[in-house]
Amino acid sequence: MVKIAIAGGTGQVARETIGALVASGKHDIAILSRGRNAPTDLPSGTKWQTVDYQDKHSLVQVLRGVHTLLSFVQLLSDPNQESQKNLIDAAILAGVTRFAPSEYGSKGTTDMGWWDGKQKIREYLEEVNRTEKVLEYTLFQPGLFLDYLAFPYKTATHVVPLQIGFNFERLRAMVVEGHEDAVMTLTTAADLAAVVTRAVEYEGAWPTTSVGKVKLEDLEAGELKSPWDLEAVHKAVSPDEAPVFQKTVSIGFLLSSVKGA
């Protein structure tokens, strides 16, 4: 069990994640918010804490004893991202071990000005850790919520569907001519919440991102230089054959994916 603080805890994605954390029954959870009064539907097993994100000194006091700080602060309401920068500074001073900034969307932000704040915070985290790691952090980047595609129907507990370039109800979609094969990532809000919950329980060091890149030339040469090890293997494969089989299948899967399989 660890003590978790959740900044911006009244938002839709935050509430989705809080629900999963509470369901695990393993943690002491404090919800941080600018609001003075706790909502009537505050999840049982959580505590409400009113904070001033502009008061770094008070944030330090609130974060004393916190192990993991998850930020869901609304980016649009703070163009310069002072709230998250103050949270990061306060977390370091308070001795917080882990931090996750307000991401929960795409990795890239090109042509999406409403997400410019993400890049500012990524750069700030790199800067504070430049000479030595003073705050462990990871970027949760699930892409687009699959639940949005259900519009006007709601498939998540808290995340409300949005109208985007797809309208399944009316059998319509928008694509860019000549780029019909553009790649995108879709994740349900429930799966994101489950991943964050598992990440909180993870005892190793958090990686900045959880996607490891390998080189095409290495794969073509039969080498799998992965930043993490494979474990599971099909039950039809004997234990003696497992290491070679894992490597062979992984290389084949990656190469075939690159070639359109």
UniProtKB/TrEMBL annotation:
Q: Which domain of life is it from?
A: Eukaryota
Under the heading SUPFAM superfamilies, the entry gives: NAD(P)-binding Rossmann-fold domains
Residues annotated as signal peptide: none
Cite a single Pfam family from the UniProt record.
NmrA
Query: Keywords on this record?
Result: NADP, Oxidoreductase
Q: Which residues form the NmrA-like domain?
A: 3-210
- Keyword Oxidoreductase applies: yes
Transmembrane stretches, by residue range?
none
Q: Which InterPro entries is this protein grouped with?
A: NAD(P)-bd_dom_sf (IPR036291), NmrA-like (IPR008030), NmrA/Isoflavone_reductase-like (IPR051609)
Q: What family is it from?
A: Belongs to the NmrA-type oxidoreductase family. Isoflavone reductase subfamily.
What this protein is called in its record is NmrA-like domain-containing protein
Q: Which organism is it from?
A: Apiospora rasikravindrae
